Amino acid sequence: MNPLRVSVLLLLIVADLLTLFGEEEALYFSVNETEAILAQEGHRVIIHGWIGETKKSAAGTNYLSFREGTISLVTFKSDLKQFPEGEPADLYAGKRLAVRGTVSMFRGKPQIKVTDPAQVTVLAAEDVFPPVTAPPADAKAKDQSAEKAQPAASDAQQTPEPEKRKPPVSASEYFKKPKPVSE
User: Fold this and answer.
1) Distance (Å, rounded) from C-alpha 79 to C-alpha 87?
2) What pTM, to 2 d.p., does this model score?
3) What is 23-151's CATH number, 3.30.420.240, 2.40.50.140, 1.10.230.10, 2.60.120.260?
4) 20-24 long-range CB contacts below 8 Å, 24 or more apart?
5) What DSSP string describes 159-177?
6) pLDDT (tens digit, 9 = 90+) per residue, 58-94?
7) Which residue(s) pair with 65 in the sheet?
8) What is the pLDDT of residue 179?
9) Is residue 48 a contact partner of residue 97, using CB atoms and an 8 Å limit?
10) Is the pLDDT score of 24 beyond 90?
C-alpha cells in the first residue's frame, strides 16, 4: 500500500476519533429550566443549582434532588467506589453544584447519572455561573471593525444631514387621471 495513502488514512482516523471523543461545546442550564432540559434528552449538558433533598436507597443508590426544578442526580452503588471522600448524598447535601452529564429520563422525569466526582463542581454562593466566556478573537475583530465603520454620535451631531430635495416635477403631473372621451 502506498505510504501516502496510509498517512492520509491514519490522519482521517485520528480526525474522526478527535471528533468522536472531543469536548463538545457545553450547554448550561439552571435546574429550573425544566422544558429546556427535557429537550436535551440524550445530550451532554451542565446544570447548576442548589441541592435540596438527598436519599440513599437500601440497595446503596444515592439520589440528589435540586431545590428548584424536577431534574435529579443518581449514583448507583457500583459507582460509589469512584467517590473516596464519601457518598454523593453526604458530600453534596445543601450545596450549590454544577454537574456535567447526559440527560436521561426515569419515570417521566429528567436525571443525570453521576459516575465520577469530576462531573461535579461545588460552587460558592457568590460564584457567577455559567461562566462568562470571552468571544472568539475573530468576533472581537469584527466588532471593532464595525465600530470603526460607524461614526461616533458626536460626529453625527457635527455633520448635518443634507436636506432632501424635491423632485423637479410633481408626481401628480405624471399620474394624472385620463380625461373621459366625449362622443
Assistant:
1) 10
2) 0.60
3) 2.40.50.140
4) none
5) SPPPPPPPPSS-HHHHTPP
6) 999 999 999 998 899 999 999 999 999 999 999 999 9
7) 72
8) 65
9) yes
10) no
Angle at the Cα of 152 (from 149 to 153), degrees rounded to 5? 140
Q: What's the distance, Cα to Cα, between the start and end of the chain in Å?
A: 96
pLDDT of residue 139: 54
Asked if 91 and 62 touch (Cβ cutoff 8 Å), the reply is no
* Identity of the amino acid at 44: R
Tell me the C-alpha distance between 124 and 104, whole Å: 27
pLDDT tens for each residue of 143-160? 555 555 555 554 445 556
Supply the DSSP symbol for 123.
E
Q: Are 54 and 65 in contact (CB under 8 A)?
A: yes
Instruction: Enumerate the domain spans of the chain.
Output: 23-151
Cell of 82: 469512584
Q: How far is CA 159 from CA 100, 145, 153, in A?
A: 54, 22, 10
